[in-house]
Amino acid sequence: MVRPGWPGVVPPDTLEHVGRGPTLLGGGERTGMDADSTYKCCSFCGEQGREDMPLVGGLGAFMCGDCLDYYSGVVAEFRRTGEDRPPPWETMSDADLLGKLALIVQTGAQVDRFLVDWVQLARSRKLSWAEIGKALGVSRQAAWERFSRAIIDGEATPELGSA
Protein backbone atom coordinates (compact mmCIF):
# COMPACT_ATOMS: atom_id res chain seq x y z
CA MET A 1 0.00 0.00 0.00
CA VAL A 2 1.42 3.34 -1.03
CA ARG A 3 -0.06 6.39 0.65
CA PRO A 4 -0.97 9.51 -1.31
CA GLY A 5 1.83 12.03 -0.94
CA TRP A 6 4.39 9.26 -0.31
CA PRO A 7 5.34 8.26 -3.89
CA GLY A 8 6.84 4.79 -3.79
CA VAL A 9 7.33 4.90 -0.02
CA VAL A 10 5.57 2.49 2.31
CA PRO A 11 5.45 4.03 5.81
CA PRO A 12 6.24 1.64 8.70
CA ASP A 13 2.71 1.74 10.11
CA THR A 14 1.35 0.13 6.93
CA LEU A 15 3.27 -3.08 7.64
CA GLU A 16 0.80 -4.33 10.26
CA HIS A 17 -0.49 -6.88 7.75
CA VAL A 18 2.75 -8.86 8.09
CA GLY A 19 2.29 -9.22 11.83
CA ARG A 20 4.98 -6.75 12.82
CA GLY A 21 6.54 -3.59 11.53
CA PRO A 22 10.19 -2.95 10.80
CA THR A 23 12.51 -4.18 13.51
CA LEU A 24 15.60 -2.59 15.03
CA LEU A 25 18.35 -5.18 15.11
CA GLY A 26 21.40 -5.03 17.34
CA GLY A 27 21.60 -4.52 21.09
CA GLY A 28 19.05 -5.74 23.61
CA GLU A 29 17.44 -9.14 24.02
CA ARG A 30 16.25 -10.71 20.79
CA THR A 31 14.60 -13.98 19.96
CA GLY A 32 13.78 -15.76 16.73
CA MET A 33 14.33 -13.72 13.59
CA ASP A 34 16.05 -10.90 15.48
CA ALA A 35 18.40 -13.07 17.53
CA ASP A 36 21.67 -12.30 15.76
CA SER A 37 22.31 -9.09 13.85
CA THR A 38 25.86 -10.24 13.02
CA TYR A 39 24.68 -12.58 10.26
CA LYS A 40 22.66 -9.81 8.64
CA CYS A 41 23.90 -7.06 6.37
CA CYS A 42 22.67 -3.75 5.05
CA SER A 43 20.76 -4.51 1.85
CA PHE A 44 21.81 -1.13 0.44
CA CYS A 45 25.58 -0.93 1.06
CA GLY A 46 26.48 -4.48 2.14
CA GLU A 47 27.88 -3.46 5.55
CA GLN A 48 27.88 -6.49 7.85
CA GLY A 49 25.75 -6.18 10.99
CA ARG A 50 27.50 -5.86 14.34
CA GLU A 51 26.33 -5.75 17.92
CA ASP A 52 27.18 -2.02 18.05
CA MET A 53 25.60 -1.17 14.67
CA PRO A 54 21.84 -1.57 14.63
CA LEU A 55 20.05 -2.36 11.41
CA VAL A 56 16.42 -1.53 10.72
CA GLY A 57 14.55 -3.98 8.61
CA GLY A 58 11.64 -6.04 7.63
CA LEU A 59 10.78 -8.78 5.15
CA GLY A 60 14.44 -9.74 4.65
CA ALA A 61 15.83 -6.32 3.74
CA PHE A 62 17.86 -4.42 6.32
CA MET A 63 19.35 -0.93 6.37
CA CYS A 64 22.21 0.57 8.37
CA GLY A 65 21.97 4.02 9.92
CA ASP A 66 24.23 5.64 7.31
CA CYS A 67 22.07 4.38 4.44
CA LEU A 68 18.92 5.29 6.33
CA ASP A 69 20.19 8.87 6.66
CA TYR A 70 21.26 9.03 3.01
CA TYR A 71 18.05 7.57 1.55
CA SER A 72 15.91 9.64 3.88
CA GLY A 73 17.52 12.64 2.19
CA VAL A 74 16.85 11.14 -1.25
CA VAL A 75 13.16 10.68 -0.40
CA ALA A 76 12.93 14.19 1.09
CA GLU A 77 14.50 15.66 -2.06
CA PHE A 78 12.05 13.72 -4.26
CA ARG A 79 9.11 14.97 -2.23
CA ARG A 80 10.36 18.53 -2.52
CA THR A 81 11.32 18.50 -6.22
CA GLY A 82 9.48 15.53 -7.74
CA GLU A 83 12.73 14.47 -9.40
CA ASP A 84 14.65 11.23 -8.85
CA ARG A 85 18.42 11.09 -8.57
CA PRO A 86 20.05 8.87 -11.20
CA PRO A 87 20.80 5.36 -9.93
CA PRO A 88 24.34 5.00 -8.54
CA TRP A 89 25.34 2.26 -10.99
CA GLU A 90 25.17 4.74 -13.87
CA THR A 91 28.35 6.42 -12.64
CA MET A 92 30.18 3.34 -11.28
CA SER A 93 33.36 2.11 -12.86
CA ASP A 94 33.38 -1.44 -14.22
CA ALA A 95 35.47 -2.53 -11.22
CA ASP A 96 32.98 -1.01 -8.78
CA LEU A 97 30.09 -2.63 -10.64
CA LEU A 98 31.77 -6.04 -10.47
CA GLY A 99 32.56 -5.47 -6.80
CA LYS A 100 28.85 -5.11 -6.03
CA LEU A 101 27.93 -8.53 -7.46
CA ALA A 102 29.05 -10.41 -4.33
CA LEU A 103 27.07 -7.99 -2.16
CA ILE A 104 23.95 -8.69 -4.23
CA VAL A 105 24.47 -12.43 -3.73
CA GLN A 106 24.92 -11.80 0.03
CA THR A 107 21.64 -9.86 0.15
CA GLY A 108 19.84 -12.62 -1.78
CA ALA A 109 21.09 -15.23 0.70
CA GLN A 110 19.87 -13.03 3.55
CA VAL A 111 16.38 -12.87 2.03
CA ASP A 112 16.44 -16.66 1.63
CA ARG A 113 17.34 -17.09 5.33
CA PHE A 114 14.56 -14.69 6.29
CA LEU A 115 12.09 -16.68 4.20
CA VAL A 116 13.15 -19.85 6.04
CA ASP A 117 12.56 -18.02 9.34
CA TRP A 118 9.05 -17.03 8.21
CA VAL A 119 8.23 -20.55 7.01
CA GLN A 120 9.41 -21.80 10.42
CA LEU A 121 7.08 -19.25 12.04
CA ALA A 122 4.19 -20.44 9.86
CA ARG A 123 4.89 -24.07 10.77
CA SER A 124 5.11 -23.18 14.49
CA ARG A 125 1.57 -21.81 14.12
CA LYS A 126 0.51 -25.20 12.74
CA LEU A 127 -0.06 -23.86 9.22
CA SER A 128 0.00 -26.70 6.70
CA TRP A 129 2.52 -27.17 3.92
CA ALA A 130 -0.41 -26.76 1.52
CA GLU A 131 -1.19 -23.30 2.97
CA ILE A 132 2.48 -22.31 2.84
CA GLY A 133 2.83 -23.59 -0.72
CA LYS A 134 -0.27 -21.68 -1.81
CA ALA A 135 1.09 -18.45 -0.25
CA LEU A 136 4.36 -18.97 -2.14
CA GLY A 137 2.65 -19.89 -5.41
CA VAL A 138 4.00 -23.44 -5.40
CA SER A 139 2.64 -26.87 -4.56
CA ARG A 140 2.57 -28.30 -1.05
CA GLN A 141 5.22 -30.79 -2.14
CA ALA A 142 7.51 -28.08 -3.55
CA ALA A 143 7.24 -26.05 -0.33
CA TRP A 144 7.96 -29.12 1.79
CA GLU A 145 10.95 -30.14 -0.37
CA ARG A 146 12.46 -26.66 -0.25
CA PHE A 147 11.97 -25.85 3.43
CA SER A 148 11.54 -29.00 5.52
CA ARG A 149 15.28 -29.76 5.53
CA ALA A 150 16.10 -26.16 6.48
CA ILE A 151 13.90 -26.34 9.56
CA ILE A 152 15.50 -28.61 12.14
CA ASP A 153 13.98 -29.18 15.59
CA GLY A 154 11.93 -25.99 15.28
CA GLU A 155 14.96 -23.81 14.52
CA ALA A 156 15.75 -22.16 11.21
CA THR A 157 19.30 -22.75 10.08
CA PRO A 158 21.34 -20.02 8.36
CA GLU A 159 21.98 -22.41 5.46
CA LEU A 160 19.21 -23.43 3.12
CA GLY A 161 18.62 -27.00 2.05
CA SER A 162 19.09 -27.65 -1.65
CA ALA A 163 16.22 -27.01 -4.05
Structure write-up:
The chain has 163 residues and is mainly alpha-helical. The chain folds into two domains: 1-85, no CATH class; 93-163, no CATH class. 39% of the residues lie in helices and 9% in strands. The chain contains four helices and five strands; from the N terminus they run βββααααββ. The chain has helices at residues 65-81, 94-124, 129-136, 140-147; strands at 23-25, 55-58, 61-64, 151-152, 155-156. The strands form two sheets. Strands 1-2-3 form a three-stranded antiparallel β-sheet. β2 (55-58) and β3 form a beta hairpin. The radius of gyration is 18 Å and the shape is elongated. It starts with 22 loop residues before the first strand and ends in a 7-residue tail after the last strand. Residues 1-31 and 153-163 have low confidence and may be disordered.
